[in-house]
Amino acid sequence: MYLEHLSLTDFRSYAQVDLKLGPGVTVLVGSNGIGKTNLMEAIGYLATLSSHRVSTDAPLLRFGTERAMIRARLVRGEQATVIELEINSGRANRGRINRSNPVRARDILGICQTVLFAPEDLALVKGDPSNRRRFLDELLVSLVPRHAATRSDYDRVLKQRNALLKSARTGKFTAGHEATLDVWDQHMARAGADLLHARLELVERLRPHLNSAYAQLTDGSKDAGAVYRSTIQGVLDDDGGPADQATEPSASVDDLRLLSVDELTERYIQAFAASRKKELERGISLVGPHRDELELVLGQAPAKGYASHGETWSMCLSLRLASYYVMLDDARTGGTAPILILDDVFAELDVQRRRKLAAIVAGAEQVLVTAAVDADIPEELAGRRVTVVPGGIDGEG
C-alpha cells in the first residue's frame, strides 16, 4: 500500500496544502520548524487517530479555526481508496470513505497503516510505562481495528469505577455504593481481560522480531527482549489466590498467556477483591491493564536506566521495526504492508546506525523521510526529493 495524495486544510500550520506522492522513497527536505513533521503527523493520525507529538487534538487545528481536514488517496494493488477525516473542536471527529456518508472516526482505522519513527520514540525506553502501553495499543488497533472498541470500553469503565472509588475518600461511599462497585468490577474485569489477552498475544508476536531487528542494527552482541508485567501478578499468587503481601508483578507471564479471556476475567475479579481495601483507601483503581508494564530488556538488564544512549536509540528503532515486521506478517496473509515514516530520525543517529536503518527500510513499498538537510540522508535512501517551505511545497523532483 502507498499514499498517492495528501491534502490538508487548517491542519497545524497549513491553511491548505497538497502533496503528491508515489511508491518508493520520498524525502521531504526543509529547515527545522518549516512544517515537515506536520505532514507526517497528519498521515500518522489517519492510521491511529492520535498524534505522536501531543495527547489532545486541539493543537492539530490551525490557530483560530474550528476544524481541520485530512484527505488521503491510498493505493493497494489496483484499488484506490479515498479517506477523509474531520477533526473538530468541541465535538466528535468524523470520517468518510470514498465520499460516502460520514462515519465514526474509528471506522476508518485499518485503511491507512503506518509505522512512524520519530525523535519522540526515546520515550519508549526512557519514559514511563504509559508510553509503552500506548505503543502496544496503537499497534494492536492497527492490526485489529475492532480493538479500538476494546480500548474505548475499558477506558469508559475505568473512568466510572474510579469515580465510585473516589467517592469513598470524600465520605460519600455507602453500602449501596459497595454493591454498585461489585457490578463495575464485573464490567472492568471483562473489558480488562479482553485487552490483556490481546496485548499478551501481540507481545508474543513482537518478541522474535524485536531481537532480530536489534541484531540488524547493532553488532548482535546483546539480545533484546520484552516482558509483559501484569498487575494481576502483583496481588495474586501463582494459583490465583491473594498474595501474602504486595509485590512487584512476577515474571510468570507465560501462565497468563495460557488463560482464556473468561479465565483472565475471573483472575481480575479475584484481584479486585484482594485489592478492594487499598483501592477504597486511595480512591483509584490499582489493578488492570492501565497500570501494566512492558519491560524492555537488553542482555540481562532492563533497558531503562542501563542502556547507553546509542543502545537506547537502537532499542527504540528495533521496536518500530518489530512493528513493521509484524505488519508484514499480516500482509502475507491478506493484510496491508504499512507506509514507513522516518520523521527527522537520521539527524539523531550516528553514521553507522543511519546506514543500517536505511538499508533495512529501503525496500519497503513506500518510505517517507524528513530531514533538515540532504546530508542527513544516507545514500541507501536515494529517491525523490520534495522541498518544504513555509505554508506549502516549493518543488518536487
Question: Would you mind describing this structure in some detail?
Answer:
The protein has helices at residues 36-48, 123-126, 129-143, 147-169, 175-217, 232-235, 253-257, 261-282, 309-331, 351-361, and strands at 2-11, 14-20, 24-29, 67-76, 79-88, 94-97, 103-104, 114-117, 224-229, 293-298, 301-302, 339-343, 366-371, 384-389, 392-396. By secondary structure, it is α/β, with parallel strands linked by helices. The protein has a six-stranded antiparallel β-sheet, with helices on one face. A six-stranded mixed β-sheet has the order 8-12-13-3-14-15, with helices on both faces. Strands 9-10-11 form a three-stranded antiparallel β-sheet. The chain has a domain at 2-113 and 336-396: Rossmann fold. Strand 14 and strand 15 form a beta hairpin. Helix 4 (147-169) packs across helix 5, helix 5 crosses helix 8 (261-282) and helix 5 (175-217) crosses helix 9. The model is unreliable at 245-251 (pLDDT under 50). It is globular and about 70 Å long.
